[in-house]
Amino acid sequence: MSRRTVNNWKLIKGQPLTELDKKILYIQHKGHLVPSRKLIKTPEQIEGIRRSGVINTGVLDLIEKEIKEGMSTAAIDKLVYDYTVSHGAIPAPLNYEGFPKSVCTSINEVVCHGIPSEKEILRDGDIINVDVSTILDGYYSDASRMFMIGNVSPEKQKLVQVTKECLEIGMRAAKPFGFVGDIGYAIQKHAEKNGFSVVRNLCGHGVGLEFHEEPEVCHFGRKGTGMLLVPGMVFTIEPMINMGTWKVFIDKEDDWTVITEDKQPSAQWEHTFLMTETGLEILTY
Ligand code: MF3
Ligand code: CO
């Protein structure tokens, strides 16, 4: 843990110190990283992110209904684009840092950021992550699910199931006034107990007013480290779990596609969460 105090929590001039101010200042003084005020969403902002999340969930429900063997990932991209735009929203990936499509589709050994293509056809036995992110009235939401095509091997089925459990366990490990590292610790323990590994290079993130905000939410690590979790924070948890090595590389052809170094399969599940007074609430159901 960084013992260097970063004074993120600033007092508002002319306003009396609240109980929340005192609590956060104390924790900051002890050397913990605390959020800036911008990371604590207002009720209005939370409602905006929630509405964005409803559309994001609608997209994933549509994909769940339509996905099948023989379909191209470009066809998935078209479903995402058409549904999102017809609901008055924008697919967040489209043109994000040059990303050319509306959704990420990541099959088997592709960890994440796979680019949909006419040439890529879903085959019997494939596992695919469809990662959907939506902008509605300027508010961002982000979630992904795994889909299994036809007859999937028991090993791949287990990977998909354990990865889903990692997301649920990470969610339960996040407590108000706990730390981001509590989440990563719990996820890593569950993944490794099952003989799998946790991708290190990519993490969850704050989300809501922008696509990627602070804090970085890694899926490995130590309890009591990383940023303090305060009610009103909105962030993703999105564990990428590999059957073999945790090491990955980026495809030089497109500069996006993240692939496992040993070409063994990888799985991922993701939700956008709101930290409440009692724990995490899913905003992408
Ligand atoms: N949806 C991804 C995430 O969970 C981000 C994808 S960026 C893109 O953070 F440009 F590839 F879409
Ligand atoms: Co995300």
What can you tell me about this protein's structure?
The protein has about 280 residues and is α+β, with helices and mostly antiparallel strands. It has a single domain (about 30-285), classed as Creatinase/methionine aminopeptidase superfamily (Creatine Amidinohydrolase). Helices cover about 30% and strands about 20% of the residues. It contains five helices and 15 strands. It has helices spanning about 20-30, 45-65, 75-85, 155-175, 180-195, and strands at about 90, 105, 110, 125-135, 140-150, 195-200, 205, 215, 235, 240, 250, 260, 265-270, 270-275, 280. The strands form five sheets. Strands 1, 2, 4 and 5 form a four-stranded antiparallel beta sheet that branches. A hairpin with a 2-residue loop joins strand 4 (about 125-135) and strand 5 (about 140-150). The longest helix has 24 residues, at about 45-65. It is globular and about 65 Å long. The relative contact order is 0.17.
CATH superfamily: Creatinase/methionine aminopeptidase superfamily
Largest sheet: 4 strands, antiparallel
Radius of gyration, in Å, reads 19 Å
CA-CA gap between termini: 33 Å
- The CATH class is identified as Alpha Beta
Please tell me the total number of domains: 1
- The CATH architecture: Alpha-Beta Complex
Instruction: Find the count of extended strands (DSSP E, 2+ residues).
Output: 15
Helical coverage, percent range:
25-40%
The amount of beta strand, in percent, is 15-25%
Question: What's the quaternary structure here?
Answer: single chain
Counted by DSSP, the helix tally is 5
Structural class, by secondary structure, is: alpha+beta
